[in-house]
């Protein structure tokens, strides 16, 4: 059956490996892939099970609020690019948080890629009749050919990837020249209130600290990673989303419903009841609002990188500047002097003192 599927794929769509109007299971060679010099922080199979369990919840739509909001903000960044992308991929699409907002003016064709098949079954496509396919694929092992995609977008998925530089490089290889990579990731300050409360409670009750919240990427690392993996014109901005909950327990319940439970290999498998109660008390005391609710901060990193192309703007050559950085405080005066000089030259030219306007 798999051979038949891939025969269909190669016969009709040799560029990006897909079958129209269907979902194809991509059998990645992750068990055979070399893991030398690659960080192995997260249990990817556990994360896949967590996502599929979240998809099986009868009230799964209740827990969509953070991912829906960030998905819209990522889509808005696509609209900022005044270009129509012929072939796009939403990597780690979940239920299609970015895809549902895509319009025909921005995208000619879109593929949703997600490692959790049950979550992908619930995905929503664009309302604007953009052609769409779905593919079960691991973000760490992309099945796309080199130079086959115009844009890759990802929203709140890549923070679970072990080999983030490897994924960035694979995306860059799959992009065509001047192709765009737009993504959103949880930042290092995400859920700092919950992290601090659990750590203080464990120190008090158990005499030690366990990693109950997965590690997140720092902003200072992302720009360097993108540059080292071949991207140009890199931009990075940071945003925060703060959500209020009745207590710490509702927050933890919603994180599980989002499929965002801890998936690190060294995560503790249980937490004592009295430690949880102590953490909830600390959370409320240290961070609680006046109305009795507690806030949870979600820090979001938005990044945009482009695959190198000759048509892109290049930085000026070293030493080509005409104004010293030491004179930046005189910028207004320099501009005023330049303006007056230009006006004087125009006046002299009108008097016929120049045959050609000097530069």
UniProtKB/TrEMBL annotation:
Keyword Zinc-finger included in the entry's annotation: no
TM segment ranges: none
Record keywords: Methyltransferase, Transferase
InterPro entries per record: Malonyl-ACP_OMT, Methyltransf_11, SAM-dependent_MTases_sf
Methyltransferase type domain ranges (all copies): 90-182
Coiled-coil spans in chain: none
Protein name: Arginine-hydroxylase NDUFAF5, mitochondrial
Species assigned in the record: Priapulus caudatus (Priapulid worm)
């Amino acid at each position: 059956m798999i051979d038949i599927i891939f025969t269909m794929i190669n016969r009709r769509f040799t560029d990006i490996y897909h079958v129209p109007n269907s979902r194809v299971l991509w059998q990645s060679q992750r068990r055979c892939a070399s893991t030398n010099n690659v960080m192995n922080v997260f249990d990817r199979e556990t994360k896949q099970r967590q996502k599929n369990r979240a998809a099986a919840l009868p009230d799964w739509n209740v827990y969509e609020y953070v991912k829906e909001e960030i998905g819209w903000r990522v889509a808005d960044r696509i609209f900022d690019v005044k270009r129509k992308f012929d072939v796009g991929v939403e990597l780690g699409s979940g239920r299609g948080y970015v895809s549902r907002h895509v319009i025909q003016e921005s995208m000619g064709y879109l593929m949703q890629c997600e490692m959790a098949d049950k979550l992908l079954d619930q995905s929503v496509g664009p309302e604007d009749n953009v052609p769409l396919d779905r593919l079960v694929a691991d973000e760490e092992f992309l099945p796309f050919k080199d130079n086959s995609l115009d844009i890759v977008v990802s929203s709140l998925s890549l923070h679970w990837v072990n080999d983030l530089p490897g994924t960035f490089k694979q995306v860059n290889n799959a992009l065509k020249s001047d192709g765009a990579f737009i993504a959103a990731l949880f930042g290092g300050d995400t859920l700092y209130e919950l992290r601090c409360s659990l750590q203080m409670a464990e120190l008090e009750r158990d005499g030690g600290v366990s990693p109950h919240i997965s590690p997140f990427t720092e902003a200072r690392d992302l720009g360097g990673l993108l540059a080292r993996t071949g991207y140009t014109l890199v931009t990075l901005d940071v945003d925060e989303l703060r959500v209020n909950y009745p207590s710490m327990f509702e927050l933890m319940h919603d994180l599980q419903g989002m499929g965002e439970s801890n998936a690190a290999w060294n995560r503790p498998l249980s937490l004592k009841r009295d430690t949880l109660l102590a953490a909830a008390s600390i959370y409320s005391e240290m961070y609680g609002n006046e109305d009795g609710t507690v806030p949870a901060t979600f820090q979001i990193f938005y990044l945009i990188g482009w695959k190198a192309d000759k048509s892109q703007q290049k930085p000026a050559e070293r030493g080509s500047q005409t104004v010293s950085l030491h004179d930046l405080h005189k910028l207004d005066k320099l501009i005023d002097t330049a303006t007056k000089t230009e006006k004087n030259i125009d006046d002299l030219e009108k008097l016929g003192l120049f045959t050609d306007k000097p530069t």
